Amino acid sequence: MRERCADAMSIFAKYGAPDLFITFTANPKWPEITENLRPSEQTTDRPDLLARVFNLKLKSLMDDPTVHGALGKSIAQVYTIEFQKRGLAHAHILIALRAAGKFSTSEHIDKLVRADIPSSIENLRLHEIVTKCLMHGPCGIDNPGAPCMEAGQCKKMFPEEFRTETTMNVSVCPLYRRCPSDTTFVRGREMDNRFVVPYNPYLLLKYNAHINFEVCTSLRAVKYIYKHIYK
């Protein structure tokens, strides 16, 4: 683990700190999985099938910035794969972009990262994916036993505050735009934009899964993705 972490640090020391931090989690309801189950089987009975489909989709996702330039052309990328606590396979991905793709303004960030509930009228499919896969909670007083709760507070800092614009921060992740909106979603309680996990619309529509998509500002993320495997 130390050698691989050191290799990753060397890569980003040469090509610059990572610009994107993506967490990609397998979706057990992908048709490539459900259509290949026997009548009596559940997804949990076929970890081999889930892992195979996830690996193929991960390879495709890694081609999006390198081959297709969908997220900006990448110059370096590193990822780790976990099956934490026997849960769904998920990958932590760090991507360094070429100079032209570096984030220099809030407007640039807003083109790739969203943290709101899309209108079901404007884009029904994106609305369904976000409300199914990218809503945090409920937690707090509505669900004090939630896994994210520690000492009476959410470790992930939800709910976030409403913000009318994205604020850049050189030491931590940007504070993403989360405008007050009439578009809400009910899951145990009424949830609004303050509960949305940041995402990229292109990736959600293409892969239909939980994909946390954030701007990265620190080399500490490199150590995080390797230490997290042995958590």
Order of helices and strands: HEHHEEHHEEEEHEH
Poorly predicted regions are none
Radius of gyration: 18 Å
How would you sum up the major sheet? 4 strands, antiparallel
CATH fold title of the largest domain = Alpha-Beta Plaits
Mean pLDDT: 89
Could you tell me the strand content as a percent range? 15-25%
Helix content: 25-40%
Q: What multimeric state do the chains show?
A: single chain
**Content-based structural category:** alpha+beta
Quick one: how many beta strands?
Answer: 8
In the CATH hierarchy, the architecture of the largest domain is 2-Layer Sandwich
> How many structural domains?
2
Across the major sheet, the strand order is 2-3-1-8
> Treating each run of at least 4 consecutive H or I residues as one helix, how many helices?
7
Approximate shape? globular
Measured between the Cα atoms of the first and last residue, the distance is 12 Å
Task: Assign the CATH class of the largest domain.
Answer: Alpha Beta
What does this structure look like?
Pfam families: Helitron_like_N. This is Helitron helicase-like domain-containing protein. Residues 1-95 form the Helitron helicase-like domain. The chain is of the alpha+beta class and 231 residues long. The protein folds into 2 domains: 1-103 and 199-230, Alpha-Beta Plaits, CATH 3.30.70; 114-198, no CATH class. Helices cover 31% and strands 16% of the residues. It contains 7 helices and 8 strands; from the N terminus they run H-E-H-H-E-E-H-H-E-E-E-E-H-E-H. The protein has helices spanning 2-15, 31-34, 47-68, 106-112, 124-133, 201-207, 220-227, and strands at residues 20-25, 74-82, 90-97, 149-150, 153-154, 185-186, 190-191, 211-215. The strands form 3 sheets. The chain has a 4-stranded antiparallel sheet, with helices on both faces. Strand 2 and strand 3 (90-97) form a beta hairpin. The radius of gyration is 18 Å and the shape is globular. It starts with a helix and ends with a helix. The model has no long low-confidence stretch (mean pLDDT 89).
